[in-house]
Task: inverse folding
């Protein structure tokens, strides 16, 4: 594919199409959806971290006036534990047990039953009337406790090394001979790090409205990162045919990976079926924090060996990640991404999926990769110190480049990692003076990026404008970027392009919004659809002029004779050809569906300055610069926003955010008052540098940009704190009590 250059709209900061609706309150989110006759659903949740469910008596709840339906695990399709049933990367064995507890309650907040009633208050009261006979069991929430020989086992049927275990899986990637590599090393640094679970922190809680007609035709309005995922998972868990379910995506108030699985939709569907009424469900913030996916807490040990000249010869990583109560922690991201920025001959990277009595984790921006990068990049910093090398120079000396074989498999094509290092080194930030108790840190990071299934339809309206329909919820600016691309290809003003997100009944299958895949994939199908439109427009102009279609070119929004030899004709604009469509073969439109390939990974390098208040233990980030190879910035403002957003989230992860558990095994801070996410006053201006090394396998040179910005942040902050204080923290978050404790020590 030829990468488009000399663009009019690609690379421009055009006005976002959803902006006015969002700032004026017109945008409709899932909780804004209502229907006549609608009733409310509520969930009864386990108060215990671990308990066998001996019986559930719902009779008193069902007898309460206003209650229309009650569902329990008996109503959810049961997937036996002895055979996996995969839907994408999710196993329905675990999803059916996450949506509703079956044999056991596995974490505080685990759904036990759901009620639908005429008001929220009645539904809540009915939940209180449900009688559950629990046999309370021993529980475990921390990694070290969960992997002890005498730990309480969550699932007896899961075995590791031949016996029941809380280790649900192991993943290994390797390259070369690790023993040989460390034998060649002259300087070795080995350290162990821990991180706490942190929540994705989307402002909009999970919400849905479900209507089931008498013939079982079902409509779901919900907040999700993929309406086709909602349709499929709801079908699997309820037993309804997928073809009977229509899932309609609402505007989404944040997801960051946390809305790539379902929680409420199957419950609301079953309640609607039983009651014969539309059912609406909206989580409280406390429910979001107790029962939806944070990302994993972790324990990681990283060992890196180098020659005295700074050549890294061996690297080993062992990553234990919490899955929560059911298998599925993002060990692939930790294992596969951690060492990828570097060309190292001998690598061994191993991950363990660890169960404990916490809510099941969900994806969070480059899932697993920030955890791995935190450990690796802090060890890189210590290695640079031991070698008396500048930390960026050490990274430059060992940087992955075209031809480098990554430990997780691929040989890198043309990549832009070295360019990010050089841009960081040349940036004024890197050599700016620092004051007392101030420090500077750097770190790098990698994320795979992805392609996958995508569908689009492009239609020309009767008045000569364009409507594009794609199948992915817009979280990172895909509508604005698609408008830029389509306008560029057609040679018209971007304001003449409307971009819609189709539902499961109006557009072809499209995979989730996740993995930094959406613009990469949707741009491909939109480009091919638009190319078909242009071919049709050229054919119609050729008919009018009575010449061959090959003698017609499309430029600046109009058909022109390709050369003087083709004839002397006045250009025919898009609007003129659209007006002639009824008499020239009918409506003009084209659609394409693809399983897109050719995605390339992304790299970033960050510089962070901090200032430590040694009396209060507060670490403040005072300057931050994120450098990233973004491929091609189709809409630069959105790319910068992705970079800044990832940095803000990583700063929270590094300094304040954590799930705090009490002695009863329940979350003690299930709200934004006590779960400290950074706000504007906690952050400086976050500077961005976009390095553009276009992806040659993509028509616009696109690489995913949404996940790389989170990957280096925690390490960059930690390295800056070490530079400020001369003390290194091996556990996150570096919150004031922990900083004071270290300073007093």
Result:
């Amino acid at each position: 594919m030829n990468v488009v250059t000399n663009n009019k709209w690609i690379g421009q900061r055009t006005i976002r199409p959803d902006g006015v609706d969002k700032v004026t309150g017109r945008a409709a989110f899932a909780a804004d959806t209502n229907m006549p006759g609608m009733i409310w659903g509520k969930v009864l949740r386990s108060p215990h971290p671990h308990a066998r469910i001996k019986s559930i008596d719902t009779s008193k709840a069902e007898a309460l006036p206003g209650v229309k339906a009650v569902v329990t695990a008996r109503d959810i399709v049961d997937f036996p534990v002895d055979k996996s049933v995969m839907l994408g990367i999710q196993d329905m064995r675990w999803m059916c047990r996450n949506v509703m507890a079956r044999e056991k309650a596995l974490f505080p907040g685990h759904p036990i039953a759901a009620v639908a009633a005429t008001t929220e208050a009645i539904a809540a009261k009915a939940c209180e009337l449900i009688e559950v006979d629990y046999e309370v069991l021993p529980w475990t929430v921390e990694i070290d406790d969960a992997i002890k020989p005498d730990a309480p086992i969550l699932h007896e049927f899961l075995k590791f090394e031949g016996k029941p275990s809380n280790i649900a899986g192991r993943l290994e990637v390797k390259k070369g001979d690790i023993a040989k590599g460390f034998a060649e090393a002259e300087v070795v640094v080995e350290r162990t790090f821990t991180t706490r679970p942190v929540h994705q922190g989307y402002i909009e809680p999970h919400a849905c409205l479900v209507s089931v007609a008498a013939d079982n035709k079902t409509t779901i309005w919900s907040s999700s990162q993929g309406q086709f995922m909602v349709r499929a998972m709801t079908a699997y868990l309820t037993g309804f045919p997928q073809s009977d379910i229509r899932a309609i995506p609402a505007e989404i108030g944040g997801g960051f990976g946390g809305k790539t699985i379902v929680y409420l939709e199957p419950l609301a569907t079953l309640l609607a079926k039983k009651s014969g009424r539309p059912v609406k469900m909206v989580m409280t913030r406390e429910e979001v924090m107790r029962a939806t996916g944070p990302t994993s807490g972790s324990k990681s040990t990283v060992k890196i060996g180098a020659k005295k000249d700074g050549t890294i010869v061996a690297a080993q990583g062992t990553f234990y990640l919490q899955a929560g109560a059911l298998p599925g922690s993002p060990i692939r991201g930790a294992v596969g991404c951690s060492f990828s920025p570097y060309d190292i001959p001998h690598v061994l990277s191993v991950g363990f999926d660890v169960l404990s009595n916490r809510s099941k984790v969900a994806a969070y921006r480059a899932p697993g990769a920030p955890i791995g990068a935190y450990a690796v990049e802090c060890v890189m910093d210590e290695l640079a110190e031991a070698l008396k090398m500048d930390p960026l120079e050490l990274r430059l000396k060992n940087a992955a480049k075209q031809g480098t074989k990554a430990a997780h498999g691929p040989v890198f094509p043309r990549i832009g990692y070295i360019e990010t290092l050089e841009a960081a080194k040349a940036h004024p930030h890197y050599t700016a003076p620092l004051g007392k108790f101030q420090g500077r840190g750097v770190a790098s990071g990698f994320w795979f990026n992805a392609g996958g299934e995508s569908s689009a339809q492009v239609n020309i309206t009767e008045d000569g404008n364009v409507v594009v329909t794609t199948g992915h919820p817009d979280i990172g600016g895909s509508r604005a970027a698609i408008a830029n691309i389509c306008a560029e290809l057609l040679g018209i003003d971007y304001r003449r392009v409307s971009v819609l997100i189709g539902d499961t009944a109006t557009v072809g299958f499209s995979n989730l919004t996740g993995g930094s895949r959406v613009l990469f994939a949707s741009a491909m199908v939109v480009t091919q659809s638009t190319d078909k439109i242009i071919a049709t427009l050229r054919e119609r102009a050729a008919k009018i002029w009575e010449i061959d279609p090959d003698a017609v070119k499309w430029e600046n929004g109009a058909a022109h004779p390709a050369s003087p030899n083709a004839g002397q004709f006045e250009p025919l604009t898009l609007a003129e050809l659209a007006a002639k469509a009824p008499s020239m073969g009918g409506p003009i439109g084209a659609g394409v569906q693809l399983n897109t390939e050719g995605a390339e990974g992304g790299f970033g390098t960050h510089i962070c300055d901090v200032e430590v208040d040694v009396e209060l233990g507060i670490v403040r980030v005072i300057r931050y610069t994120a450098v990233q190879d973004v491929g091609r910035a189709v809409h630069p403002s959105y790319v910068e926003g992705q970079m800044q957003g990832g940095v803000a989230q990583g700063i929270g992860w590094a300094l304040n955010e954590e799930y705090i558990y009490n002695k009863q095994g329940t979350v003690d801070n299930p709200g934004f008052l006590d779960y400290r996410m950074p706000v504007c006053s906690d952050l400086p201006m976050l500077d961005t540098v976009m390095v553009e090394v276009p992806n040659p396998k993509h028509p616009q040179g696109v690489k995913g940009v949404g996940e790389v910005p989170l990957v280096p942040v925690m390490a960059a902050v930690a390295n800056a704190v070490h530079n400020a204080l001369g003390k290194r923290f091996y556990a996150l978050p570096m919150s004031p009590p922990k900083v004071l404790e270290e300073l007093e020590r």
Q: What stands out?
A: The first strand starts at residue 39 and ends at 45.
